[in-house]
Amino acid sequence: MARLDGKFLKGIVGNATLKKWRDQQIIQIKTHSPRQTEATKKSANLFGKASSLGKLIRQDLANVNCDGRMVNNLNFEDQKILSQCFDKETEQFIFHEQSFSNLEGFEFNAKSLLKNYLWVKPVLTITNDALLVTLPEIKIPEELNFPVNANLCVLRIKVGLIALKAGYRREMQYQDIDIELGQGIVPAQVWSFIIAQGCLCIASATLYYYKKEGNIQTAINTKQFSPSAIFGALYHPGDFVMPPQLNPKLIQIRWRTSGLQLS
Question: How many domains does the chain have?
Fold first, then answer.
């Protein structure tokens, strides 16, 4: 109820509060805060976890020059995957080796798609506790396009490991291959990376182009032109255990908390 105090009304009328402030009549409207249902809370929690996962993937794999929409697109894909892997009865995430396969082919820059420049696809496989990256033979320039003025390309393969339930991540590992425009063929190659059970193993390929004149290399890549994409995403089932072959000091350097625990 409001009452008249001189020339001003004071009190509460419905969802409005009337008061005097510096010889003026003030009306404050109480905003409505809708009550969150249990389903709404769970959805918000899932989105938060997907955003955290997306951030880790971007930090490990993404090129510095990314498409502006990439962040939201990656979070959306992660949310779909986590929603599919969430068991409503046990309220636990259940992951299998191919749970994250929908991330394969995800492009980091829509204005320069990797698939339009690299016409062979690296393959990711798991053997025991080793992650194998197999790069098929590349015919130059038929299977690797060079932009105008570029005569050197550095193909960088990046591998990130995230222990989803334990809340750890391993420092990003990478392998570079220098490819010259006139070299003809890049032989097939295989790299092996030590991994741990309970980890999401995710790999991307990025192309860095240069104009090479003598010992001088001029970068061709720009914010708009930076081909980079995820080519493999596998989950290594099991319970995460710090690799025993590393001493504690090295583990602290190579493994660190991720800020994400999908239990």
Answer: 2
